């Protein structure tokens, strides 16, 4: 099990705009540009990037044995075709962003929405970094797979949380409905070809 | 020897990791370690024995995750078995057994979905079982969130009188994950009167040094350190930790030399580590803890100390004499109250007073709701201000931090009601120098009451430093000696009794014109005599001017930098506002709303109201502007942030209009209930819908998120709403939306149901029985406008 921490200097603006529903037809962003700049500064100031990962051997019998849980998800089986191992990771951008969202959802819907989008872009970028390091170290493949994709049930989150001891290692918690807090958190499986 | 005796005597050596050991012994990944208390008790007992043989004075029972979320009805059995394993190992060795209480793995509301009281209940169940099985102490550990830690400590205090040891996880940045500083953690935990406090997990001992030093500097309670053996990494499929036993023990010894008194290990440490610590500590003297006598309050992020720099307490959230706030409290207009909180924070208040005392409201409910809402928008510590002990207790219980409590006085009845609460929940108390006889006219009379209050507080174990005396500023217009009496008693209490002081400054000018003149001069006089805190209006330029100047003049502002920054911000904000005004002056109300300029929109609305009826301003200016923005949004020539900025600008204009005419500003008949369905805590989309609907003049009742179906139906019945908007973001909560719709159909057959949210589409919505699917907030507005036409 390995724990990583990180810090980003800026947040991918194109991704952020995509989350905000920006299209080329928008004639003039007006004051929204300055609003996003201001929110980006706030989000970067409170980022607390952490991740934990571990490697598992895959075996195939009646159902797919992931090394930390079994599943009969066909979509995951397809994704893991040709893989003998997998890397399992959980990553978070920290609870500061949730605080900002809680704050602005009471004070300014515009800011709340922008912070939400920036947080989503930030956690994606952090996942990309974690993923890139798995690719570099173990030759992991370039796509990742998460609970809720295709037929992979959200309930697998419970197994992921105990396999990686996620709450203890990086402070992410899981609700009864398998939703994570801090909300800007991701868990994912990355296949490693034989 | 008991744990408390051991703590007093010297260094207490704890054990090391349990989980790491169990994995090495073949605990399958993902299996619950506590199961082994029952299935393989010998293994657990053996690990404890190894730690005791290594020199541990205390072992943590294998109960870290033994709570009813994971074990349900087996909780008691698992806890009992865990304690018994440890007790068997400890038998005859003198080692003590701690009930280990870990995080529940769920985030507490408001950030997560676990209510505070529910968390307290879950912890109580585990702790009761541990006490019954014979634990010697309760060790609450590995908490990322100080609020969850508070719930666990409150639970422990309510079920037993065993010693409590409480440790949090700190990051390398010196804060917990939820942003708590070491000083804030100490303030909260000392308030709750734990026996030892500190940090565990996550970091190596050397990385903890900064946070440990900060805790030691302010803590009068022994400090605990249980670090990890460095960082974990994968090595050939096995998890190994970066720090060996020798280095670990050496680094622990240096933390003990700094003053840590309770030490051990967390993840990655083994009996070998504990043995090495024992060796490294030979001949090392425990450092005395020492009373720090600090007067402090805290929020969930930081602590605020009284004494060196005078503290400003914002008085704006107190309905006395404030018509707009009274109205907001009666109508449940939280937005206005939160706006007051944020603006006082921006003006430089250090603490916010929260008083909601109105005869016709349910004060306990409203006060605690306000406290938790205000804590969601600002990280300033709060002063809980009420004369109702029930309201005080409820608010102190759910407050995330150590509050300032307003107030106690020399009356027996009040002391009997308030001091037990302070003893239980922690708090620094404002003590008014009055009693059954009233307010003594002389300084001598007031200081006599102060002494009486100190004596009584000590009986509850409340130290002098947890009292702040308010010597009562009374109207100088009624009594010419009022200011002198307040100042002389203040000076005596500050300098002779050595306690901190506070004043509600503006009372002094009651009945006089231009009250700020008198207030600011009295404020300056009081500061010069040793005032430690003042309840003032932070929006008052005169008061802030006096405060900043005083800091510079009294040598509390190095190189006058604070004063210079303040003074130049005053000039620059004047010029900047002028420049902005110039630039924006071209925009009329419509233009300001379209561009999303809040301040300008409010200004224009005020201007228009001089010659126009309020409804005309809404219909001729605001609605057309919103329509224009809505059209552009639908045509995608502007995007979501712009739509919302315009909505906020329109909202600012509405606020101005609301102030100018009685009755509702709503111009439409349609009423809408909105809610995010049960099980779903995502409410941004729902909030956007609400904002736009209000802007368009509809009356909106917002039930918030994670709302029970029956509550939705009840609200529709109560309000007579014609439309109910439901939002769901997750696939798992679509079912919950379906249940809500079913119930609405049964109980409120006439209501039109709008479904929305990320997982919805027209097909789904009709399948679960909604009247319509709206893809975004504008679509909801359009739908409601159609229905409105049918109504009129």
Folded structure, characterized:
The complex is a heterodimer of chains A (194) and B (792). Chain A has helices spanning 13-19, 32-46, 74-79, 96-107, 109-138, 156-164, 166-170, and strands at 2-6, 49-57, 59-60, 64-65, 70-71, 83-92, 173-174, 180-181, 185-193. Chain A has seven helices and nine strands; from the N terminus they run βααββββαβααααβββ. In chain A, the strands form three sheets. A four-stranded antiparallel sheet of chain A has the order 1-2-6-9, with helices on both faces. A three-stranded antiparallel sheet of chain A has the order 3-4-5, with no helix packed on it. A two-stranded antiparallel ribbon of chain A has the order 7-8. Chain A has a single domain (2-193), classed as NADH Oxidase, CATH 3.40.109.40. The model of chain A has no long low-confidence stretch (mean pLDDT 95). Chain B is an alpha/beta fold and 792 residues long. Chain B folds into four domains: 3-280, Homocysteine-binding-like domain (TIM Barrel, Alpha-Beta Barrel), CATH 3.20.20; 295-554, Dihydropteroate synthase-like (TIM Barrel); 589-660, Methyltransferase, Methionine Synthase (B12-binding Domains), Chain A, domain 1, CATH 1.10.1240.10; 671-791, Cobalamin-binding domain (Rossmann fold, 3-Layer(aba) Sandwich), CATH 3.40.50.280. In chain B, the strands form five sheets. An eight-stranded parallel sheet of chain B has the order 1-10-7-6-5-4-3-2. An eight-stranded parallel barrel of chain B has the order 13-14-15-16-17-18-19-20, surrounded by six helices. In chain B, strands 22-21-23-24-25 form a five-stranded parallel sheet, sandwiched between helices. In chain B, a hairpin with a 2-residue loop joins strand 8 (232-235) and strand 9 (238-241). Chain B starts with a helix and ends with a helix. Chains A and B meet through strand 1, helix 2, helix 4, helix 5 and helix 6 of A and strand 8, helix 14, helix 15, helix 26 and helix 27 of B.
């Amino acid at each position: 099990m390995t724990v990583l921490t990180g810090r980003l200097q800026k947040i991918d603006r194109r991704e952020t705009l995509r989350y905000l529903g920006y299209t080329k037809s928008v004639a003039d962003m007006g004051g929204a540009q300055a609003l996003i700049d201001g929110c980006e500064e706030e989000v970067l100031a409170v980022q607390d990037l952490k991740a934990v990962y571990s490697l598992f051997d895959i075996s195939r019998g009646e159902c797919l044995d992931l090394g930390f849980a079994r599943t009969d998800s066909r979509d995951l089986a397809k994704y893991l075709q040709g893989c003998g191992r997998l890397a399992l990771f959980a990553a978070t951008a920290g609870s500061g962003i949730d605080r900002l969202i809680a704050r602005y959802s009471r004070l300014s819907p515009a800011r709340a929405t922008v912070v939400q989008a920036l947080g989503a872009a930030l956690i994606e970028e952090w996942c990309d970094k974690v993923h890139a390091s798995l690719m570099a170290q173990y030759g992991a493949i370039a796509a990742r797979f998460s609970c809720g994709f295709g037929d992979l049930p959200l309930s697998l989150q419970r197994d992921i949380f105990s396999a990686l001891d996620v709450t203890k290692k990086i402070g992410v918690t899981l609700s009864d409905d398998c939703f994570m807090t801090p909300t800007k958190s991701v868990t994912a499986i990355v296949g490693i070809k034989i | 020897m008991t744990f408390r005796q051991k703590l007093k005597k010297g260094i207490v050596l704890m054990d090391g990791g349990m989980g790491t050991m169990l994995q090495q012994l073949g605990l399958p990944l993902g299996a619950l370690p506590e199961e082994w208390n029952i299935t393989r008790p010998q293994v657990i007992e053996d690990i404890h024995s190894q730690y005791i043989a290594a020199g541990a004075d205390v072992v943590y029972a294998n109960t870290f995750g033994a709570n009813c979320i994971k074990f349900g009805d087996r909780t008691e059995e698992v806890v009992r078995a865990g304690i018994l394993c440890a007790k068997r190992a400890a038998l005859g060795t003198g080692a003590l057994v701690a009930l280990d209480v870990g995080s529940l793995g769920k985030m507490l509301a408001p950030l997560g979905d676990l209510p505070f009281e529910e968390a307290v209940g879950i912890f109580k169940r585990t702790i009761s079982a541990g006490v019954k099985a014979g634990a010697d102490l309760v060790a609450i550990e590995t908490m990322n969130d100080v609020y969850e830690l508070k719930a666990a400590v409150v639970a422990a205090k309510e079920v037993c009188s065993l010693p409590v040891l409480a440790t949090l996880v700190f990051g390398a940045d010196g804060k917990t994950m939820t942003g708590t500083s070491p000083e804030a953690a100490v303030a909260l935990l000392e308030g709750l009167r734990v026996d030892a406090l500190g940090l565990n997990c996550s970091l190596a001992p050397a990385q903890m040094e900064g946070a440990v030093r900060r805790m030691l500097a302010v803590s009068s309670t022994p400090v605990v350190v249980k670090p990890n053996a460095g960082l974990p990494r994968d090595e050939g499929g096995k998890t190994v930790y970066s720090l060996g036993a020798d280095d670990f023990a050496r680094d622990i010894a240096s933390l003990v030399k700094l003053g840590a008194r309770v030490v051990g290990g967390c993840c990655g440490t083994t009996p070998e580590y504990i043995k090495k610590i024992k060796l490294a500590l030979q001949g090392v003297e425990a450092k005395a803890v020492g009373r720090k006598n600090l007067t402090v309050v805290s929020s969930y992020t930081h602590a605020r100390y009284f004494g060196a720099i005078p503290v400003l307490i914002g008085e704006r959230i107190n309905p006395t004499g404030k018509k707009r706030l009274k109205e907001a409290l009666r109508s449940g207009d939280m937005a206005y109250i939160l706006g007051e909180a944020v603006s006082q924070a921006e003006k430089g208040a250090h603490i916010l007073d929260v008083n909601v005392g109105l005869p016709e409201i349910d004060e306990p409910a409203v006060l605690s709701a306000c406290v938790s809402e205000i804590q969601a928008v600002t990280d300033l510590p709060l002063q809980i201000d009420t004369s109702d002990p029930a309201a005080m207790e409820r608010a102190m219980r759910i407050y995330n931090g150590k509050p300032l409590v307003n107030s106690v006085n020399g009356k027996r009845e009040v002391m009997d009601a308030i001091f037990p609460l302070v003893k239980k929940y922690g708090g620094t108390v404002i003590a008014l120098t009055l009693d059954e006889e009233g307010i003594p006219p002389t300084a001598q009379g007031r200081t006599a009451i102060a002494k009486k209050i100190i004596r009584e507080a000590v009986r509850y174990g409340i130290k002098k430093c947890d009292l702040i005396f308010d010597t009562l500023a009374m109207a100088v217009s009624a009594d010419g000696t009022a200011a002198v009496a307040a100042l002389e008693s203040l000076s005596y209490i500050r300098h002779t009794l050595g306690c901190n002081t506070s004043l509600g400054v503006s009372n002094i000018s009651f009945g006089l014109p231009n009250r700020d003149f008198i207030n600011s001069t009295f404020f300056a006089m009081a500061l010069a005599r040793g005032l430690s805190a003042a309840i003032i209006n932070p929006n008052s330029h005169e008061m802030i001017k006096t405060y900043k100047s005083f800091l510079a003049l009294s040598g509390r502002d190095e190189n006058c930098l604070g004063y210079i920054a303040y003074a130049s911000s005053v000039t620059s904000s004047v010029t900047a506002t002028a420049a902005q005004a110039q630039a924006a002056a071209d925009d009329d109300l419509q233009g300001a709303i379209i561009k999303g300029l809040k301040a300008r929109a409010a200004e224009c609305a005020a201007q228009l109201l001089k010659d126009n009826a309020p409804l005309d301003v809404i219909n001729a200016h605001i609605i057309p502007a919103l329509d224009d923005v809505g059209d552009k949004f639908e045509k995608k020539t502007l995007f979501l942030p712009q739509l919302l900025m315009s909505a906020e600008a329109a909202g600012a204009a509405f606020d101005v209009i609301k102030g100018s005419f009685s009755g509702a500003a709503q111009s439409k008949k349609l009423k809408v209930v909105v809610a995010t369905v049960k099980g779903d805590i995502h409410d941004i989309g729902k909030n956007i819908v609400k904002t736009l609907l209000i802007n368009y003049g509809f009356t909106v009742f917002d039930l918030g998120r994670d709302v029970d179906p029956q509550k939705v139906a009840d609200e529709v019945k109560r309000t007579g709403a014609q439309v109910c908007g439901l939002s769901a973001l997750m696939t798992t909560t679509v079912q919950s939306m379906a249940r809500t719709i079913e119930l609405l159909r049964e109980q409120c057959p006439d209501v039109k149901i709008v479904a929305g949210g990320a997982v919805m589409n027209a097909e789904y919505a009709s399948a679960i029985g909604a009247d319509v699917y709206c893809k975004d907030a504008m679509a909801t507005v359009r739908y409601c406008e159609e229905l409105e036409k049918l109504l009129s």
